[in-house]
Amino acid sequence: MTDPQPRIIQSPIVHTTREQGYGNLFYGFQNPKRIRITNVLLVSSLYDLYLFEEDGRLYELTRAEYEGSNLGQAPELICVSSGKEALYVAQHEQRFDLIITTLHIDDMDADEFARMVQESGMNIPVVLLMHDNRELHHFLQTHDTTVFEKIFIWQGDFRIILSIIKVLEDKLNVEHDTKAVGVQSLLVVEDNIKFYSSFLPILYTEFIKQSHRLALEGIDLGHKFLQMRASPKIILCNTYEEAWYYYERYKHYLLGIISDVDFPKNGVQNPKAGIQLTREIRKERFDLPILLLSNVIENKRYVEKLNVSFIAKNAPNFLNDLRRFLEFQFRFGDFVFQMPDGTEIARAKDMKNLEELLKIVPDESIRYHAERNHFSAWLKARTEFWLADKIRPRKVTDFPTIEDLRLNLIKTLHHYQQLCQRGVVATFSKDSFGTITNFARIGYGSLGGKARGLGFVDMLITDYSIHNRYENVKIFVPPAVVLGTDIYDEFILRNVLLDFAINCNDDSEIERQFVSAKYFPSDAIAELRSFLEIVSTPLAVRSSSMLEDSQYHPFAGVYETYMIPNSNPDIEVRLEELIRSIKQVYASAFYQRAKNYLRVASYNPTDEKMGIVIQCLVGKWHGDKYYPDISGVAKSYNFYPPPQKKAEDGIASVALGLGKWVVEGGNTVRFCPKYPRDIIQFHSVEETLRSSQQEFFALTDSGGMNTDTLRQNPLVRRFPIQKAADDNAFSYIASTYVSENDAIYPGTSRNGSRIVTFAPLLQNSTVPFAETIQLLLEMGEWGIGTPVEIEFAANITEGIKPTLEFALVQLRPLVIRREMEELNVKILNKQLLFCESDEVLGHGRIPDITDIIAIDYERFDRSKTHLIAREIGTFNAQLLNEKRFYLLIVLGRLGSLDPWLGIPVTWEDICGAKAIIEAGFKDFVVTPSQATHFFQNVTSFQIGYFTVNEMRNQGFVDWTWLSQQSPYETKQYVKHYRFEKPLDIRINGQLKRGVILKPEK
């Protein structure tokens, strides 16, 4: 999506990775349409049921097998002893997915029962489970068996129940799982009921073992279970025609074929049907693993002719031979590097290991395996279907040399592993962090809200190929490790800190106790040391509490963030600094600010758990200062939109240096990402010079960590903006003021004073900076389902075509209760209203306003506006000294440069106002002041701004009621009113409508 259109797109970003196959495991197997057998009706005589229980403790062992194999919840087995009862229960409960019947039921033959199930229209498959092979032979000759889905024989192995269920589930799901995910299937061709009744449990057991081996390598717990669910399907066929049908249908997704030799073809038993089937398949697939099973040893002579394997059914070592076939032909287990003569030279246990061994094994071994498609076969057996399909079409002859093939395989494996890890919080491993994954966890507790948000946005960036959407922009989430909340719990518990921290009201004492606490989990210390061995960039240690970044109470800015240079040559010193910072973040969960926030949000301190995000800090070293070229915050919804803009267009605030300057309210450049050239605050040279950024924050590595300085970042310091100019960091963010002609020019090519305007970046399309912000806001809003706020940092690398490294460091929902709730501003009783307007900026209720500063409507004189401005300024200063905010009511344009069009106040004259009514003159209409420099301060301080033009029937002010109130103080043109009860000021930002209700009497 090169030209994103906000709030219109259904799926805002093309799901490139899903179309290419990345993440298919996650999406395909989370599809709710997959069919599971969850309720089984067992129809059996009491004696048969007794045999099941006595021989195999059927239900308990079946449930244990499901739980031990991580197959999900075991199906419920409901037993009845008669056909009539079974029909009644099945029809009335309507919850059964499968009926298993024995031959002996009380009141009817099994085939009659199965036929009645069919005729009832219940569409439930019926499987016949018999006890005796002789009994089976007689039954097959004298009864119609086509009414049964399948027939099996009980031989004392409870796993036959699991096999019956799995065979039917595989048949029901093979179409979906093949199309959606590319799951492989094994074609089993066998008509001997007794043999496949004993063979299938063995086969499923081996498949489950393979799945368990793969699950151990899963990225996270969810990935482990999904890999297990991606194990191959088994398609059981009894005839040549059935086998050929499924081969044709799934030929490109077959792991292999295991086939009997003697089975029906064209309705007649054919002793060479398996040979004939193999010949036909070999015409198309020379490399497909095929295993022939037979009691006729003479059939072994076809092994070399047809390039197949052979095992005698009655061989004493049948199971070991089968396992060897699965390992070497289906590539279960390790990838075994061999020379052409069969000599084993190395084994790869996983993809990472395979990538490493590919760098050193001989060319002859790579050629041998590549010519036989062994690499793709091994990957398919490991459920890496997309990667296998990508590698398989490549032929050795496609590459000039084997070395080129080697490098291509290594690159493909490495790239795929990186993509799979993105968006997944893997367990930290020194071997893979920084190469395969950049986001990992230490500990097993919750990640907390901030880490969840980072993981989620990392997933979105990967799944929708956002990271390379623009040619010269790299979008990424900075590398990070996350400490789970279990480490916090253990730290608090072992150091006996909870009661003290809850009851202590001295923040400095809380921090001293936490920092001096002796115990810190040794496993976490070891992992953090390994992390520091491979990461040498500065680090930000951020809170990631359980409650942070929720949609109702985001807890933004409640807890501390610490930044450390991580530059000491002694790793033990760096480790000590890191653990100290972690303890400080833990302590901040109990500071008074946090306790008060929790109290207001109706939480207890014990409800909160603290995770930690240790994130690589984005920036560059400039001497002993480290900071990014750009940091900023952007929102997808702006409740203070400037003229000609919509709230949905969003807003961004950017500055030079660390993001601390932006989030703490320093002067920034504010713009709408959709319209980046229109910067309202820079409407004049004078205003640009006044409101531009004068200082910035940077991290220093001089002086070391001051262990006596608590509750602050001693190495994060403020510098005058000129220091950045000296660092040559101004190329794309500064303009030049030339005093000789009192003009400002984008860029730094002229002589003059440098000022931060970001004009070169926002007015030049060479680097799509604003477009990147807009894209990420849309992505976040679509992904979360609400308006969002992002924090970011970026560096620009100069060159023929400059490149932008754009790091998304946080994504959170906007505060929904404060900014998105449907605030009621419809007042039926107009007598209660003091003011009403359909042109309002802001949102929410403004509480505790009991003072009004208002121009005397009757005495107003447009020739006296300078005097009026001074009177307003005097009242403002008085109320500021009393620490009382107020409602300001003026006539005409507030802050107007033309005194005949309004009141020429400065910002200092009205800075105590929390709400403003800008009413029209009696005799003519004046355009509201939203386009003046006042608007920047109104939006920055989130002041409720009511525009009323009664001449145009746009709202009203009840001047009559106000004139009837007794002033608290009166000047020549301005009056001060004070009430015992507060005004009720309500603004609905979505409707841009607001009301002010008179104080209660």
CATH topology of the largest domain: D-amino Acid Aminotransferase, Chain A, domain 1
Number of strands: 47
End-to-end separation: 58 Å
Oligomer: single chain
Per DSSP, what share of the residues sits in E-state strands of 2 or more residues? 15-25%
Low-confidence stretches: 1-33, 218-222, 706-710, 816-820
Q: Give the mean pLDDT.
A: 83
Identify the CATH architecture of the largest domain: 2-Layer Sandwich
What Rg, in angstroms, do the CA atoms define? 37 Å
| CATH level-four homologous superfamily name of the largest domain | ATP-grasp fold, B domain
What is the number of helices? 36
Coarse morphology: elongated
CATH C-level label of the largest domain? Alpha Beta
Helix/strand class:
alpha/beta
Biggest sheet strand line-up: 35-42-41-38-37-45-44
When the domains are counted, the total is 6
Largest pleated sheet: 7 strands, mixed
Estimate the helix proportion, in percent.
25-40%
Describe the fold and architecture:
- The protein is of the alpha/beta class and 1001 residues long.
- It contains 36 helices and 47 strands.
- The strands form eleven sheets. It has a seven-stranded mixed β-sheet, with helices on one face.
- β44 and β45 (974-978) form a beta hairpin.
